[in-house]
């Protein structure tokens, strides 16, 4: 973590809300994008990522300054998103009426930088993956996590991470070539 | 060993995540298997394509709105806590007064007194049970510990 970020977090730990603003601004794009991949809905993604920032603030005193901020925040964000998906599953009928019960029907790549036809196709292919595949693609390719970090975050063995990521990539290739079911 | 057994290793190879022994075995297999070499090329190409996907940075206006949303929730948190504490205190006091008055009132039939007490006692038991369940789940929920780092 760079020094200025550590300084900001130290100020946050002393209760200074203004010091939290630069952190939120710095990671808002990545946070919204991550939530969007998991939830498949733009409004939900914005709301969930903001809620995760609020939770991060509430627990900021427990944050270890020797660790980087974003992976810590990303774990909170994933939990917020998974919680929302669970409640969405519980009120499935309502979610169906809203049009995004499977978390991926609203898959417009609005949060992508530098779009073109190929990237849009890839994005749509990612959003067609089941949640557990989308999760590992997100962690590996968007968050740059190692297999060890993913295994720790998901509480699964490294071998499972490797095969899950491989299956996700195979499914992605299948969607891109039109060979997927 | 069949290609199927080597397949997941291809992803680990592309990501530089294999241990030396796995890498050696895979490279030996790749030297003799064209299908796996093609598969490997496909995975490398996909990884390059995925590396081109980036989330866009929000505009200054969007960031301001976003931060305002977070800030408002932070402020509201204190409000909710105070509101909840106040409501619990007032409701408990009101319930106590009501039950005390009911029990002391000779005009109220015994069945109503017993029924009301059972109702209130049941609510308290349910509340405590739910609270205990929440606390137990929180204690064993692996996700709640993610915050501790």
Describe the structure.
- The complex is a heterodimer of chains A (181) and B (149).
- Chain A has 9 helices and 1 strand; from the N terminus they run H-H-H-H-H-E-H-H-H-H.
- Chain A is mostly helical and 181 residues long.
- Chain A folds into 2 domains: 109 residues, Rna Polymerase Sigma Factor, Chain: A (Orthogonal Bundle), CATH 1.10.1740.10; 70 residues, Winged helix-like DNA-binding domain superfamily/Winged helix DNA-binding domain (Arc Repressor Mutant, subunit A), CATH 1.10.10.
- In chain A, helix 8 crosses helix 9.
- Chain B has 149 residues and is an all-alpha fold.
- Chain B has 5 helices and 1 strand; from the N terminus they run H-H-H-E-H-H.
- Chain B is elongated and about 95 Å long.
- The C terminus of chain B is likely disordered.
- In chain B, helix 1 packs parallel to helix 3 and helix 4 packs antiparallel against helix 5.
- Chain B starts with a helix and ends in a 9-residue tail after the last helix.
- At the A-B interface, helix 2, helix 3, helix 4, strand 1 and helix 6 of A face helix 1, helix 3, strand 1 and helix 4 of B.
Low-confidence spans of chain A: pLDDT under 50, at least 5 residues?
A: 94-105
Oligomer: heterodimer
How many domains of chain B? 2
Provide the structure class of chain A: mainly alpha
**Count of DSSP helices of chain A?**
9
Give the overall shape of chain A, derived from the CA principal axes: globular
Strand content of chain B: under 5%
Largest interchain contact: A-B, 56 and 38 residues
Q: How far apart are the first and last residues' alpha carbons of chain B, in Å?
A: 41 Å
The CATH class of the largest domain in chain A is identified as: Mainly Alpha
Please state the average pLDDT score of chain B.
Answer: 85
What class, by secondary structure content of chain B?
mainly alpha
Order of helices and strands of chain A: HHHHHEHHHH
| Radius of gyration of chain B, whole Å | 32 Å
The CATH superfamily label of the largest domain in chain A reads RNA polymerase sigma factor, region 2, helix turn helix motif
Count of individual helical segments of chain B: 5
How is the CATH topology of the largest domain in chain A named? Answer: Rna Polymerase Sigma Factor, Chain: A
Helix/strand order of chain B = HHHEHH
Mean pLDDT of chain A, rounded to whole units? 85
How is the biggest beta sheet of chain B arranged?
none
């Amino acid at each position: 973590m760079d020094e200025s970020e550590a300084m900001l977090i130290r100020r946050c730990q002393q209760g200074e809300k203004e010091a939290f603003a630069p952190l939120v601004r710095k990671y808002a794009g990545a946070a919204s994008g991550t939530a969007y991949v998991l939830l498949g809905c733009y409004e939900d993604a914005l709301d969930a990522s903001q809620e995760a920032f609020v939770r991060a603030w509430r627990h900021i005193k427990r944050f270890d300054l020797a660790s980087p901020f974003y992976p810590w925040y990303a774990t909170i964000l994933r939990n917020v998103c998974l919680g929302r998906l669970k409640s969405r599953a519980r009120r499935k009928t309502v979610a169906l009426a809203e049009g995004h019960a499977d978390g991926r029907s609203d898959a417009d790549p609005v949060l992508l930088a530098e779009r073109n036809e190929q990237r849009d196709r890839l994005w749509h292919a990612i959003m067609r993956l089941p949640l557990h595949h989308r999760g590992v693609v997100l962690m590996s390719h968007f968050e740059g996590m190692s297999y060890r970090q993913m295994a720790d975050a998901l509480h699964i063995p490294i071998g499972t991470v490797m095969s899950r990521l491989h299956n996700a990539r195979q499914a992605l290739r299948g969607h891109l070539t039109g060979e997927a079911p | 060993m069949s290609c199927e057994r080597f397949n997941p290793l291809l992803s680990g190879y592309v990501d530089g995540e294999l241990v030396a022994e796995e890498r050696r075995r895979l490279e030996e297999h790749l030297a003799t298997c064209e299908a796996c070499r093609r598969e490997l090329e496909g995975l490398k190409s996909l990884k390059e394509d995925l590396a081109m996907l980036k989330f866009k940075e929000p505009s200054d206006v969007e960031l301001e709105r976003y931060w305002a949303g977070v800030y408002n929730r932070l402020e509201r948190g204190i409000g909710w806590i105070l509101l909840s504490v106040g409501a619990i205190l007032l409701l408990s006091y009101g319930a106590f007064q009501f039950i005390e008055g009911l029990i002391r009132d000779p005009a109220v039939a015994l069945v109503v007194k017993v029924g009301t007490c059972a109702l209130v006692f049941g609510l308290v038991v349910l509340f405590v049970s739910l609270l205990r369940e929440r606390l137990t789940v929180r204690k064993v929920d692996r996700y709640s510990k993610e915050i501790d780092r």
